[in-house]
Queue: 2 jobs
Job 1
Amino acid sequence: MTVRAANAEALRRLLAAEPVLTDCVSAVEAIGLEPGVVLHAGPPIGWQVMCAPVQGAIVGALRYEGWASSEADALELVARGGVRLEPCHHRGAVGPMAGIITRSMPVFVLENRAFGNRACATINEGLGRVLRFGANDETVLARLAWLRDEAGPLLGKALRRSGGIELRTLMAQALQMGDEMHQRNVAASSLFVRALLPSLVREGTGAALERLTDFLAGNDQFFLNLAMAAAKAATDSLLGIPGSTVVAAMARNGAEFGIRVAGCGARWFTAPVNTPEGFFFPGFGPTDANPDLGDSAIVETLGLGGMAMAASPGAARFVGAGGVAEALRITEEMREITLGEHPYFRIPAQGDRGAPVGIDVRRVVTTGITPLINTGIAGRKAGVGQVGAGVVRAPFGCFTAALEALAADDG
Amino acid sequence: MTVRAANAEALRRLLAAEPVLTDCVSAVEAIGLEPGVVLHAGPPIGWQVMCAPVQGAIVGALRYEGWASSEADALELVARGGVRLEPCHHRGAVGPMAGIITRSMPVFVLENRAFGNRACATINEGLGRVLRFGANDETVLARLAWLRDEAGPLLGKALRRSGGIELRTLMAQALQMGDEMHQRNVAASSLFVRALLPSLVREGTGAALERLTDFLAGNDQFFLNLAMAAAKAATDSLLGIPGSTVVAAMARNGAEFGIRVAGCGARWFTAPVNTPEGFFFPGFGPTDANPDLGDSAIVETLGLGGMAMAASPGAARFVGAGGVAEALRITEEMREITLGEHPYFRIPAQGDRGAPVGIDVRRVVTTGITPLINTGIAGRKAGVGQVGAGVVRAPFGCFTAALEALAADDG
């Protein structure tokens, strides 16, 4: 197969994806996570070189699972090799920021009905002090317990009753409503809640329903994790198309940025991550920013987030003084490194032209333009949580490494 | 007071409005509607000259109230003077299309917290065969009974528990999400449902809650009536500012288009309505269109709908081949006949410039530009229901008549 034919096939699969949200169950049920396994965002990484927010989140998860009774206990468990660290991506899952998933955590289950593959993601915890930004105090663990014991099971029951919620149409509509589905998910979250509502009130009652609806009403980023799982379900179908130079995953672990390429299967190509720039919450500044982190860049891999910046005047505020004009320019720039336009994800401000999709490592290397990613910014210190939001570029080195590997395979 | 000072005051009141949705109660509780009174859209009009959809809706309302047992019975009741017809606007209310309100119908109650006045609107019935488009069969009456007996009371309980839902911020956000809140209300409806949800699940249970959530999940135009009531609450505060040439209401009864002007209080200035142009549902065409109808043009009076066309790529589809470019042009044109820009209702596609607001009858007369209104299109025959959606211009004659009256007052 020529590169051209391989990439046409990759693009076909990417654009034909039909992500349907079907369930919410524990990670052990969904993907068979074993005791002692902790999934994290980004490409593989060892404990010693992990950044503080990821380490903090892991400590929190070990306490949440009852595998450790204190931070000291957790650190000791890690030190003696009692924890197996693995990327979410290796288990068909994705997680924002630290991306921690352990076996009892509830995860959304999505099916890509065009190709039969599945993907999972955790439930978005909301803003403030949350595990994904490295916070691990009692309020964080109590929320995780509630998600496990009450919210997750109720969401699962409602989803099973609904027969599945088709996300492609919902996401297309949210893009028309100013979400780029990385920095901004208020439209998608609202559409999703309204779509789930009839099933939710049939399965939930009393205080459990009240707590869940309070949570859904208060979390504008609720849909982020679903957009990520939808993108994961779409992009996983690309892995293993010989010769294809299309990017099938982008993910960061706080130290390295990793990409996967359709023609190279599950292999990662990594380079040191950049640190995002943007706006900081009061009391924080650029020196507080942790380097780029999270599996959420999977949405850019599907043409959302920074790729679709022009669709979101709200997200455009994070690119600085350029505003909407700069947002339009960014999406135009992203067209230089992509092979297609999404037939469903269309951008009103660009005459309903499709979002740029199908990042080609050859084009990145030739143009020197790297994908731009919208992202939250974690505090560098464990336990601080989110300190801002902004944008970051994927490092060039991943793409040159991938292209070399593709050339070697070809040779 | 000079005209300039009077208009500055009118604009100040218009822009300072704080509509808060506080309750849903019967029209007899909200506005003391008497037995035998039927409120209708637009300026005053007699039965004989009413168009068929409004007559059909009145027949339906008389049967719904139990004041008539059949169509023949209803027509006989009207013929012998047993029904008092009155504009919604005269009772602090607004209704879309036929705009029929009778005493047992539930109405939303909004407070303009900046000025203490209130406004009401019916609950949007959804699409298809509905009373407001003149349909009056058993399914229509059954839905009205359900709104009265179950949905309305539950919405009222939820709203009272919520302490009121502030609509200005919600509407500003919906405008950022592609709603112009006349033709398109999917964002506002979704945001509203999510905001009401925590109170709704605390007040509703079982089948009643299920039926209401099904209804809310399925009606993308649910918010239209709330936008209308918000606009009514804002614009009513203008009535009676001596010398002001700012339009305080626009409404149509299917025969005449009427405006009220701040400087002339409750007086109507009317001219024959135009017939909307746009897209028709399969099987219908321009010859099936009823002339322009409904109180919904109150949203244009507040800078929404056609005035804010540039905010809504979705609504722009109804202006024909020009699409988004034409939508931008229309909003620019509307700036020529308005005195201000709304500080909260901003348009992303125009650099977040405020929507044009404060229609000045002098500017309309001087420029020859009349307000453009987004609208549903009712079938001309009673019982047919909606046949399409499009745009229509307010007739020039209302504005010249108002300006003559203002000049006479001044003289």
Job 2
Amino acid sequence: MTDFIDIPARVGAVLTVDLDALAANWRHLDRLSGPAECAAVVKADAYGVGLEEAAPALAAAGARTFFVALPEEGIRLRHLLPHARIGILDGLFPAAESDYRAHDLIPVLNDLDEIARWSTAARSAGRPLPAFVHLDTGMNRLGLGSADRTVLAAEPERLDGIEIAAFMSHFACADEPDHPMTAAQTATFLRALNYLPPGPASLANSSGIFRGQETHFDMVRPGAALYGVNPTPETDNPMQPVVRVDARILSVRTVDSPETVGYGATHQVMGQARIATIAAGYADGLIRAMGNAGAVTIDGSACRIVGHVSMDLITVDVSHLAEEAVQPGDAAQLIGPDMPVDMVAAAADTIGYEILTALGRRYARRHVGGDAAVAPARHSPGRGAVA
Amino acid sequence: MTDFIDIPARVGAVLTVDLDALAANWRHLDRLSGPAECAAVVKADAYGVGLEEAAPALAAAGARTFFVALPEEGIRLRHLLPHARIGILDGLFPAAESDYRAHDLIPVLNDLDEIARWSTAARSAGRPLPAFVHLDTGMNRLGLGSADRTVLAAEPERLDGIEIAAFMSHFACADEPDHPMTAAQTATFLRALNYLPPGPASLANSSGIFRGQETHFDMVRPGAALYGVNPTPETDNPMQPVVRVDARILSVRTVDSPETVGYGATHQVMGQARIATIAAGYADGLIRAMGNAGAVTIDGSACRIVGHVSMDLITVDVSHLAEEAVQPGDAAQLIGPDMPVDMVAAAADTIGYEILTALGRRYARRHVGGDAAVAPARHSPGRGAVA
């Protein structure tokens, strides 16, 4: 990723997405997964980085199976990737069976009613229809619970016409190493596979891939790690950063005690301070909980956010930097190599996933790289065009 | 706003924006402002509700002056409203003077350098150019501080060629009644007006309008109150709700102790509970801090959010509702008449502004009303089309 970001004259901030890093992250996870297929989760506009650019880059890197949450997202993805396998995690929506069939979407069947409706759809189609079957092993969110699984084992004909793409389940606590729930969920999943009809299996999410080969089964389903979120928070991030946000410095002012900064007068200046105001706020996804907690970097130096985050602005303390190093028109790095998404999340008492999906619509978006995934030899690291 | 929302087959949730309520809110604030002009702040995609629909509805209601943060937003607004006055709050960006002139954007000049550049632009245009001049009275974010104001008073020729649309300032604490900072800022503003060249003045934001006529001056600049956020948090909301979010119930399951719900196993079920899983999450702007804190309503009854908010899903406790009252395919109200945006914000330990601007891109968006603002007699309350 280039070091220097030139912010176009009419915008406040630039969101850069590194498609080469995205592809490299997928390849790294694919290698780690050994013989298991490595799918790619691209729901929520590819975790906020942009489905239109991310999905083709992941496909070029080698991903063949993709997951989204909603049928509407699946249809958008189908236009981008005519030949991919597309799974719909939220299940088979009532009265939408024909949409799934028309766009070749594979529902993740979450209960017996969804199984019955898809079996009926297969009968009326006159051919088998593929589906994932979700087994709930402890999230208590979606998927067949143990009572449903017992029924299904006793009456396997409920699956008539359904071609099992995989039985799958989802970890609740895989981001914590050695959390007992991960082993318990794996054991429950294995027991269920033993008494259900045969079929491929899929369990590990991003963190799960790092928690031992016994969770890899036939397919792993990374999401957050693809986009640079650390799947192993207890240690260094094995993934490359994908997202970078740089914003324009609008003003630098000297503030003296007993003055305060921002809404609610929550930051009390101690002695003289220099405060820079930067053109991005919670409307751009810099969530408000970062107020008086987060930081940005200017020229590689960390600068604390002081006062509340405003809708369109943040204020940071630049007292420790030379005056000539911080001028209106310069850029501050809000997320990027110097300010990892997980660190931003920690300051806001949340997780990197939320930071990514909250990224707003107001940025100038640049996508760099991407061609490398198709033809590495042709790649040059030039700047992408600003959208 | 209609009571019953039908969620289209392929989507998880519907965002409804009531353009009649938006117009009524502007008219209410306009009446309260007496002879002062009532502008409309529409930055950040009209606080998340959609600039393309909101701006024309506000113009039809009578608003003539609009404010956005960035020149890029101003250009987008100019295409919608060819004749409106458009102020750019973030100031006069370097090297963007020609963009402001080409699209007839009025910069809010925030320092002496911006004043100098706009005065130069006027000289080269050979005609006066309008500008707001922002006086910082305590936010320490943007605007001329007292030293800059002294220079400007001593050297008024710095404003040559600039037609003062208004001197303005911005309140830090107007949402708290009788906060001493509001009176202090008003006094500072008045003192500055006394020694600066003559010109119209503008101070009150949404809350300021309710804090006494002495802050109204020549123009008020409401934002949040237009969109239904309570400008007087200490008492009942005088504004009409503008935004409503309804989401699809995907599943309802019985969970028994000692099971847990969701990521991190943060919700421990006490005895038997029925849990409904709903198709919206933090990627849709239901910020993650609502986990184990917020609530939704189903059929008018509040249901607590249990467990963490997931990216695409929330889980709520529906144990107290009859089984037939909560079925997959039904809708839950996440924001709306039964679940005001300020209540959602309080559960997430933030403000209604952030809830609105965080509303994601994945909703089916419906805009209802709007024609009433143009021709009240023709208005019928029919459903808008789903985008």
